[in-house]
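Lab notebook page, bench 4
Experiment: in silico fold of construct C2
Operator: M.H.
Input chain length: 385 residues
Purpose: comparison with the prior construct
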Amino acid sequence: MVAIGKAAHAMLDGLRGCLPASISVAGIVSSPIPPAHPYPNVKYFIGGHPIPNEDSWRAAQSVLEMLAGCDEQTVVFFLLSGGGSALVELPLEPRFNLADMQRVHRALVNCGAPIDDINAVRKHISAVKGGRLAQAAGRATTLTLAVSDVPAGKESALASGPTLPDPTTWTDVSSVMEKYLLSEKFPKEMSRWIEEGAIPETPKAGDSAFHNAHFSLLLGQDGLFHPAHGAAETVGCVTCCDNTTDDWPVERAAEYLLAQLEELRNWNPNRRVAVIADGEVSSPVTGNGMGGRNAAFVLACIEKIAGRRIAVLSAGTDGIDGNSPAAGAVADGETLARAGAAGLNVRQAFQHSDAYTFFKQLGDAVVTGPTGNNLRDLRIMIAEP
């Protein structure tokens, strides 16, 4: 058993509950938090997120060592959830070290690229991504059970697809490197290695690594959308779910969703209305502050909703937003006036990537702590008649 991600502990509990007590489960877990109830014969690692740490490195080494001992009589359960890309990491090229990989991850998560582009690069330079764990399992039977924080139909992006065929190619990597000027941000030796085209291609559909590999999606965006939709209707909202803004720049997403909210209110002039969105928005880091894309989204809404009977929430379902201790933030039509009275500047906070500090001072940061799950981000916008 290999459990990787923010929901790793809960998924292991679930798997253990499905198996007869007489069956011994051995394996490896890498999660950002320690287990509440550790199991015997399981190695636990507290991996780094969003930047890999020494435990991420050791976890990857342990997984590869364990898989090397598999044969045709072995069954391997891979329990994957969001965050796995950083929680288990090892370079494909042995001459690169942890500091090199940390620099790469930092550049990728801060460059503003969509997750598909980020993962195209991560898969090709890693020994444990892009189908390479399926390769490492050899002739074993593998069953991947997934709690997905990626768009439907793009499951190979979950944890950078360690057990699935990789649809991206070296050409994609080259394009992403050029578009986001990543060669200037990566270690020089790694940039040279990539530019020379020396990277072996990741395994594709039809590769023998996947002949006895199986995948099952346990929970995805519908597991977030439907309950949120039901909760909004329970409190009297005419509700619309809209996932159009997935991977959009944060300010463009705010404009679009607020326009959707206004249109819904025009169609229902005497009703409370709500727009619910999930997915992730793009928010490049432009300063040294604290925060993430969720608080940045709410920050981008403040001036647009000032003086209006509108409230906005955006939060990560994992309980973590960027480099902050919060999940996200809330704001309403009075937030701009309250911020002014407190001497806070909305645009300055946005430019400095300091949304968490802004909302913390107002008491409007949403702090849940790690939730032990990850179904992407949730945005809820409510307008009163």
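Observations: Residues 319 and 327 are 4 Å apart (CA to CA). The radius of gyration is 22 Å.
Next step: discuss at group meeting.
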